[in-house]
Amino acid sequence: MDLFSRKPAHCAVCGAPLKHRHKPKREWNVKGYLCGDCHVTKSTEFYEAKVVQPCVVCGTRYRIADMWEPRWQWDMDGLLCKGCFDKKEVDHKSKKSTCAHCGAQLGFIRYNPKPKWRMEGQLCRKCWDDTKAERG
What we know:
The chain has 136 residues and is mainly alpha-helical. 31% of the residues lie in helices and 4% in strands.
């Protein structure tokens, strides 16, 4: 009489013999126990499909796995869809490479406007000097 013996169990998904039984959630619609690999796979599929978040710029909803994290230079919180990320990347490169006042190509030396000027982007030396003379 084997009081503590168990019948050999197999995974309900892949059929592998089980060393440790993992109980599936009701929402997964799986009858029986799972092996460790199948349990991890099912849980990631379930939670990735469940977690949906809107894009910060356009507001369309995507799975988090399909969204992009903004670069630290952009000073943004949240996630972006691929289209908005690409637009923001092009906009950032253009602001970084051209003068915000006259539109000339910037060289190696760039000048940041003072916060009280309320300008976005960077300036060439001529525009920075002119703006400083005007606004102080």
